[in-house]
Amino acid sequence: MGAKTGEAYKERLKKAKNNVYANGERVEDVTEHPAFKNVIDSMAKLYDVQHEQADKMLYTSPTTGDKVGMTYKHPTTIEDIIARREAIQEWARTSQGMMGRSPDYLNAEVMAMGMNNDIFAEADPAFAKNARDYYEYARENDISLTHTLIHPQVNRAKAEHQQKDANVALHLVEERSDGIIVDGIRLLATQGAITDETLVFPSTVKKAGELDDPYSLAFVVPNNAQGIKHISREPWDYKDNKWDYPLSSRYEEGDTIISFENVFVPWEKVFVCGNSSICNRTFAETNAVAHMSHQVVAKAIIKTEFILGVALSIMDAIGIDQFQHVKDKGRDIMITLETMRSHLYRAEHNAKLDKYGTMTPDFAALDAARNWYPRVYPSMTEIIRVLAASGLTGIPTEADFAHDEIGPIIERGLQGKNLNGYERVQLFRLAWDLTASAFGSRQSHYEYYFFGDPVRMGMTYFDNFEKESYKNRISDFLKEATKQPTIER
């Protein structure tokens, strides 16, 4: 099959009839439902872009000869890493970086676990084969994936096996000759309602102990599998109007809670079964975390470029770009952008072949970026709100401008330095949707927790950082100081 088109993506969703619930009702057809149809159109555009820019977005499959998505490519050179990043950023530009779980994110994970799969063989060589086979299957069929990493927030002070209801979290119920039975609940599947399949994987930051082995699972399952329910949080595509809500009416990905009710998973789709040690090491030892972080940083750069563009446009629209404090705020966004670009450059040009023959970006650069960006993203959106000031709330709708009586009033009263009222309000509605609407607030929250709790991530970063050379430098300096002759007075 190879790389699919947008129409093929929609048809696959229609035929699948995934078991999705939104606003207290079961969704019959996600491609027609108001909560999902617009973002599905945006996803379809991604798949069409693959064919419109085939020289950048596609490559020849090493197994079938079909043209497949560049974001699945197994890199063996630095040039491969850069080519894949260029495809990632081409996709990111279609949504201005607002789709945090565009398909390339999990395509990178599937590639890494498929090619660097020795860790899965520790329990059973078949699991390593499963990972390799699934990579090829996903690549050749252009599978769209969501994933779920975390257990419900019942009582974070206890491990899963210590919970009052120890069966609420997804867990292993039974091993059979043909597969496993799993039951329980998992959070939080971004794009869960609009994708083909779900990757169930361990947390990237929260480690499990042996007593949590029944909860230590990694597998993939179709989103329409018997016993699965995707329960959507409140959808925030409130109004099907791209002028009033230019971002949320296009890129509201949605997030779902997944209920597994005695779901059968065939052995060939299982990668880890009841092994906390393997789960704890999966992301690091497959280098999936490096390849996924590479996608995240590449996407974040496109998003930051867009934020900077909005900030500069607001400055120009209301004539505030000559003030010192305004320039200082613009500088903050510019420095964020250039810092992220520098991290990405270092990651790509310091890439090295790992033991599996996979060219892997320098994770030290990416790890710094993925720890830093969640902490500065809220400040960038705050800058937009400060710059726009009261203008951010004085934003009539497109319908108001069309009204014979009030339209001329707001057209005159809301004009900008170089924009008429209609144009200025359109810009400020974009700023609102980016920073302060339900969609914009979710973007800030999402970026903050993208890889997990930033404090926990920071602790891990600190613990893993090489410290001895820096301490030794101080020790050597102080020792050298004691060798100097004492000055007699």
Describe this structure in words.
The protein is α+β, with helices and mostly antiparallel strands and 489 residues long. The protein has 2 domains: 6-285, Butyryl-CoA Dehydrogenase, subunit A, domain 2 (Beta Barrel), CATH 2.40.110.10; 288-471, Butyryl-CoA Dehydrogenase, subunit A, domain 3, CATH 1.20.140. Helix content is 50%, strand content 14%. The protein has 18 helices and 14 strands. The protein has helices spanning 6-16, 37-52, 54-57, 78-95, 104-115, 118-121, 125-141, 248-251, 276-285, 288-317, 324-349, 363-388, 398-402, 407-413, 421-435, 438-448, 454-464, 468-483, and strands at 20-22, 25-27, 58-60, 67-69, 145-148, 171-175, 179-190, 197-200, 217-222, 228-232, 255-266, 270-273, 352-353, 359-360. It has a 6-stranded mixed β-sheet, with no helix packed on it. β1 (20-22) and β2 form a beta hairpin. α5 packs antiparallel against α7. The termini are far apart.
| Physical arrangement of strands within the biggest beta sheet | 2-1-10-11-7-6
Beginning-to-end CA distance, first to last residue:
87 Å
Number of DSSP-assigned strands: 14
Architecture of the largest domain in CATH? Answer: Beta Barrel
Broad shape: globular
Residue fraction in strands: 5-15%
Structural class: alpha+beta
Unreliably modeled segments: none
| Separate helix tally | 18
CATH C-level class of the largest domain is Mainly Beta
How many structural domains?
2
What number is the mean pLDDT? 95
What's the main sheet like? 6 strands, mixed
> What name goes with the CATH superfamily of the largest domain?
Butyryl-CoA Dehydrogenase, subunit A, domain 2
Radius of gyration equals 25 Å
Tell me the CATH topology of the largest domain.
Butyryl-CoA Dehydrogenase, subunit A, domain 2
Helicity, in percent? 40-55%
